[in-house]
Amino acid sequence: MRALMRGTLTDAQARYWLEQDYLYLLEEIRVLARLAWQAPPSHRADLIDLAWNVIHEELPKHIAMCERFGAELARAVKGPATSAYTAWLLDKAAHYGVGMVALLSGLWGYSTLGQQMTVPSEARFKDWVESYRDPAFPALARRYADMVDEVTVEPRIATATFLEGMHHALAFWDIPQTAP
Fold first, then answer.
1. Which CATH number goes with the domain that contains 155?
2. Total number of domains constituting the chain
3. Cβ of 175: how many Cβ atoms within 10 Å?
4. Which among 34, 40, 143, 147 is least buried, having the fewest CB atoms inside 10 angstroms?
5. 132, 8 in Cβ contact below 8 A?
6. What's the predicted TM-score (pTM) here?
């Protein structure tokens, strides 16, 4: 993460992370669909809107960013952190409330991180960091937090799920020094 903010990631490291994030986004759509299917009517449109946004807004922007670094999305393979994170999210989404907490952990973490990140001067990295600094991101995290507050999840389970989700989100930033 520090290398991203400094603009010092190697192209191989950037490609690896971007490919992993692309694969994560594809799985996030599945998680959102699973949650929307179970959602109370007051949450359903928000979840469907977010899935639509990932498909029609976030993925096209992400793909354009990937092209700047020569990422080969059609050949991308999930790394260990991405596999563990996405499998965990999909599993947690089997229970609506727990799935919402699981998704909120990453969303909250990334939106908070985005507001604290320093924007590097190198153009490719600048656009990347600025995507995390978008003011819509913390607003979305707040809406998700409100939705989580509206569902019943046993507090011990919610806390454990949130913390495990943060662990996965942090592990996602571990880019191998010699990225494939």
1. 1.20.910.10
2. 1
3. 21
4. 40
5. no
6. 0.90
